[in-house]
Amino acid sequence: MKKRNYIYILIVLALMLHSCTKGVIDRKPNQSQVVPATLTDFQALLDNTSVFGSDKIGAGEIGAGDFYVNYPDYQSAYITDQAAYNWQKDIWQGTLGVQEWDGPYQQVFYTNVVFDGLKSITANTGNQADYDNIKGMALFLRAEAFYDVAQLFAKPYDPSTAATDLGAPLRLTSDLNVKSVRSTVQQTYDQVTNDLVQASQLLPVTPVNVYRPGKAAAFALLARVYLAMGNYPLALQNSDASLKLYSTLIDYNTLTPSIRYPVPRLNPEVVYQAYIPRDGIWEREQGKIDSNLYRSYSTNDLRRSVFFLTNADSTVGFKGMYDGGRPLFSGMTTDEQYLIRAESYARAGQTTLAMADLNTLLKTRFVTGTFVPYSASSPDDALQQIITERRKELLLRGIRWQDLRRLNKDPKFAVTLTRVLNGVAYTLPPNDPRYVLPIPDYIILATGMQQNPR
């Protein structure tokens, strides 16, 4: 066995041993029973919330510019958070165990264990529903992991270069002897969309709970992916399919803005529950919201009080986590789908439908009786309003980094990010190479795969 493959196996096995604290594997009493073999085993493996139900995209969230910190808090942050905050090229600083990379590939490994195991099980009338749910769930979770990797470690999707741009390693087997090689961006997105289309056909309409994806979640993630690709007809088709299955919105008048976390966990807008599994420099005791962004919410906009609080030093903190606590929510929700469908309608020239979706969402965000429906004079006017409200609605949801990568290609929406630390200004211009993070050095050493150009 080559040394680099041996090192890679050690890394993956270490990850498995470290994080497999729940579920079927660690309940097996002896080594001969470690490998899952039944549908019950496979379902338990996919229900392991120490592995799944989270998006390892913390570095992107830190770099997305939704918040700022003062210099003493910056100095006390993790070294990788510091590097992500002011967009350093050497973001990982030699760290071993980068969860933004290791986490998704741990998820990929587990799903591939399920796929390989399903090959030995024959579906029949007695087990078909369970078999389909397990396979569909594994497809969804693998696609989610590959997509997360692409948002951090690959260039934004561009149809003119996607066939040659470096994408994610597409590991499609649990055999650790198979060498990891990078696919292209086109191959990565093809794999993600193909997995999700299959998942949407297999998953149930109503899952047992929102920790498991159902059809609406598969369509919702497809809509998010196609939006990142700039494929607005398919983003429209899938957001519409998701909303036809589930479209509930929270009336923010029913929330209690004065409590610590006004938006409850597993709230009615959640289609699929996921979060960003790390404490970060964004924590509300440190992360502060730009005052101009805060002032963009009108007085009668309940998001102003539901999402934000005023700190003792008069700065603005964020409390609107959709996870109902400290973690940042990153799952699928109906409000995001309304915004995707509205944007897709606007880009298709359907102004009336676009504004109808935007107003359906916004009327649930304003004090009862105060909302005046928005209007637009043209598709471009509608698009501008929708992008503005998307920024305000999906704050600190793990989405802004993805939006910057795709929207920066359009001069109308391009943004230069700036942060000031100890009197020194740092900037991230639109389409900067730093929007693609380097693969951790220890992974390059272990696999020999090609690094991103620096």
Number of continuous helical runs: 17
Average of per-residue pLDDT values: 91
Strand order of the largest sheet: 1-2
Extended strand count: 10
Total separate domains: 1
Biggest sheet overview? 2 strands, antiparallel
Q: What's the oligomerization state?
A: single chain
Roughly what fraction of the amino acids lie in strands? 5-15%
Approximately how much helix is present in the residues?
Answer: 40-55%
SSE sequence, one letter per element = HHHHHHHEEHHHEEHHEEEEHHHHEEH
Shape: globular
Report the structural category: mainly alpha
CA-to-CA gap between the ends?
A: 31 Å
- CATH architecture descriptor name: Alpha Horseshoe
Return the CATH topology. Answer: Serine Threonine Protein Phosphatase 5, Tetratricopeptide repeat
Identify the CATH class: Mainly Alpha
Could you name the ranges where pLDDT drops below 50 across 5 or more consecutive residues?
1-33
Q: Give me the Rg, rounded.
A: 22 Å
